[in-house]
Design brief:
By secondary structure, the protein is an alpha+beta fold. The protein is 31% helix and 30% strand.
């Protein structure tokens, strides 16, 4: 009898420890395209995603190649809350240049998603068509319910096997840019 009780107790302890390890390590690692795109978002001089004070980012993504004549895009969401109700979506084009992958950040928009309703904080650049593309992508990502966590310290590590660029610098000011200096008034002397 004592051997059976001990075996049961050990089995329960093993199951408990296994469930803890699944909870701790059950989060699937972000696919390389998502991880690299997230690296661009946190390291680009445009400062797309502010990671100050954060230990990890909550991410989701959707690869896309049908809507743009076969060009490869990835929609990346960086969530602001663990409930996946608000965040920013980024439209990133993938291309190859000189044997390096290039992540070209082409658009972004902040949104809330409550009761299956998507609302943008400001209309995305590109008009109604672009807003519809981003809305559809958010809906598909939310429907998939596949989220990833990426450690900020890993995202901030230097990289050399891909390159990041942005195509909206001329449309929107960089978020971390210092205010422009005002010219001095002409001297009347």
């Amino acid at each position: 009898m004592d051997g059976t009780k001990t075996m049961r107790r050990n089995l329960l302890l093993l199951l408990l420890l296994t469930s803890f390890s699944i909870a701790l390590y059950g989060q699937e690692r972000a696919p390389s395209a998502l991880f690299e795109a997230a690296q661009c978002l946190v390291t680009d001089p445009h400062h797309w995603v502010d990671v100050k004070g954060l230990k990890e980012l909550n991410l989701a993504y959707l690869p896309e190649s049908k809507s743009f004549g076969g060009e490869k895009y990835i929609y990346v969401i960086v969530y602001s809350s663990p409930k996946h109700e608000d965040g920013s979506i980024f439209d990133i084009r993938l291309k190859d240049d000189d044997h390096k992958r290039v992540y070209s950040i082409e658009n972004d928009a902040s949104f809330t998603y409550v009761n299956k309703e998507i609302k943008f904080d400001e209309p995305p650049l590109g008009g109604t068509w672009r807003e519809n593309q981003l809305t559809t992508s958010i809906r598909l990502i939310q429907k998939r319910k596949k989220w990833y966590e990426a450690q900020v310290k890993q995202l901030l590590k230097p990289y050399t096997h891909f390159r990041c660029e942005t195509n909206v610098e001329d449309m929107a000011p960089a978020k971390a840019a210092a205010p422009a200096a005002t010219p001095a008034a002409p001297s009347t002397k």
